[in-house]
Write a structure and sequence with these properties.
Elements (H helix, E strand, L loop, with lengths): L4 H5 L14 H32 L9 H11 L6 H11 L8 E5 L4 H12 L3 E6 L7 H13 L3 E4 L5 H10 L4 E4 L13 H21 L5 E7 L23 H20 L3 E6 L2 E2 L8 H11 L2 E6 L7 E2 L2 E2 H13 L17 E6 L5 E2 H12 L4 E6 L14 H7 L7 H16 L8
Helix pairs in contact: 5-6, 5-11, 7-8, 8-9, 10-12, 12-14
Bound molecules: uridine-5'-diphosphate-glucuronic acid.
The site of uridine-5'-diphosphate-glucuronic acid has 18 residues, from strand 8.
């Protein structure tokens, strides 16, 4: 709202008809009264903006792009200053020999929290970045943040689309690696809010890579792609060499776009880039929008749960992968990531470009997942079997993990029964087993 009065004065009161001023007094009077009007209406306008943003609900998922984006950008302004920089440096400081200094985006997310904690445990420097958006209950994200804070990890509250913030972070600390996990996740929500996927998974990724390419030294980047890129591919198990040009959801399409964008930044700027295709990750501190999580909640509440099946009663199955196995995969990818080769925004030689499946290699039907939960919770589920809606879900996922095994010894060791047991134990300790959980 920076309209200057001189600018206002030059605008004729009747457009197209410039009027001569009658006297200097009248001129000055008009000047002051229009200035007062302008100030008054500016306040009214600003007031309306404030009321609009602060009245909007904060617990339901954002439905439209403009309010979603503005809410995010309102949240990104509280950084900077010597104390803040000190905190950033201290969190990112390497505390072991040959350790890494890692910027973890999406650090208050499910995978981000576990990876950050594991890096810190082994002496790497970790700085988190998260916008704490309300796609799902932000109090869970705050609880994860509190957990990380106790082990000395600072999470900067900000958005990957905030270029000034990202540049500042690299100015303050020369990160050797970026673990990029910030994203708009979830397959089905893409039909409700498509723009949030473009905003985070495409625009946000490009923004981050722009800053990384200009950083000196350039970091190596490991980032979260998704098993969903296999889309309608029917050749199983899914291998990295299989086609990924038939995404079934916008979410999958944005992750696939990310893989192509990674290729470009590797090719032009010499950035070292590794994409990890996660297969339906589950476990303690998980995401409430995922089926295993809300099935648990609804079984305990006695609410019916929708179980999808394909046409002709075909099984819908997932290669559910336990979080600790995924963390090992993430660390393996970081440890084998080669240095980026560019500097000053210019490529100096060919750089590493990789994509790995991180799955469990053993798909389980969704109905079996429910049976395991029933046993662990000691409650019978109210099953509502229904046809797989046309909302982007694919029928089946199954990872071939031989590439990750060969490159960094990735070997998942947790079966669904064991992993869900750990999840349920956490769930009950966090939410209680009562029937009135509200999240
Ligand atoms: O592997 C991946 O890349 C993806 O894994 C999950 O996506 P999804 O496998 O669809 O996980 P859920 O939403 O938890 O669904 C698990 C299974 O339950 C089924 N389901 C889901 C919801 C429901 O109400 N009923 C139901 O039977 C789905 O069809 C699917 O087979 C994550 O949500 C994505 O963010 C991630 O990228």
């Amino acid at each position: 709202m920076k309209l200057s009065s001189s600018h206002m004065d030059n605008i004729p009161s009747t457009p197209g008809k410039f009027k001569m001023d009658k006297s200097p007094y009248i001129h000055r009077f008009r000047h002051y009264s229009s200035l007062a009007k302008l100030t008054f209406w500016s306040f009214v306008f600003l007031g309306l903006i404030v009321v609009f943003f602060f009245k909007s609900p904060s617990t339901s998922p954002p439905n439209s792009m403009p309010s979603d984006l503005s809410r995010r950008s309102l949240k990104t302004s509280s950084w900077g200053g010597p104390a803040w920089e000190k905190r950033v440096r201290s969190s990112a400081r390497i505390r072991s020999q040959n350790g890494l200094s890692v910027l973890v985006t999406g650090a208050a997310g499910f995978v981000g929290t576990h990876v950050s904690a594991a890096l810190k445990r082994r002496g790497d420097g970790v700085l988190g970045l998260d916008n704490f958006n309300n796609y799902y209950d932000p109090t869970l994200k705050r609880a994860r943040q509190a957990l990380l804070e106790r082990s000395g990890i600072y999470i900067v509250e900000g958005d990957i689309n905030d270029i000034a913030l990202l540049q500042k972070l690299f100015e303050v600390n020369p990160f050797t690696h970026v673990m990029h996990l910030a994203a708009q996740a979830g397959v089905r929500y893409a039909m409700e809010n498509p723009n949030s996927y473009v905003h985070s998974n495409i625009a946000g990724l490009v923004n981050l890579l722009e800053v990384c390419k200009n950083a000196n030294p350039q970091p190596a980047i490991v980032w979260a792609s998704s098993s969903s890129v296999y889309g309608l591919n029917s050749k199983v198990p899914f291998s990295e060499k299989d086609r990924t040009d038939q995404p079934a959801s916008l979410y999958a399409a944005t992750k696939k776009a990310g893989e192509e964008i990674a290729h470009t930044y590797n090719h032009i700027y010499g950035l070292s880039l590794t994409g990890l295709r996660f297969f339906t990750v589950y476990g303690p501190w998980g995401r409430p929008d995922m089926a295993y999580f809300f099935f648990t909640r609804d079984i305990l509440k006695g609410k019916s749960i929708p179980i999808f099946e394909a046409s002709n009663h075909g099984t819908v199955a997932r290669d559910f992968t336990y979080i600790d196995d995924i963390v090992k995969g993430c660390l393996g990818a970081l440890d084998t990531a080669e240095k980026s080769t560019g500097s000053g925004g210019k490529k100096k030689g060919p750089a590493q470009l990789r994509v790995f499946n991180l799955g469990n290699t053993s798909p389980v039907p969704v109905s079996d997942l429910v049976s395991i939960l029933e046993k662990l919770l000691k409650v019978k589920a109210k099953r509502m079997v229904m046809k797989l809606p046309r909302n982007g879900d694919v029928q089946f996922t199954h990872a071939n993990i031989s590439f990750a095994e060969r490159e960094f010894g990735y070997k998942p060791t947790t079966d669904l029964q064991t992993g869900l047991k750990k999840f349920v134990r956490w769930y009950v300790s966090y939410y209680g087993s009562g029937k009135k959980n509200s999240h």
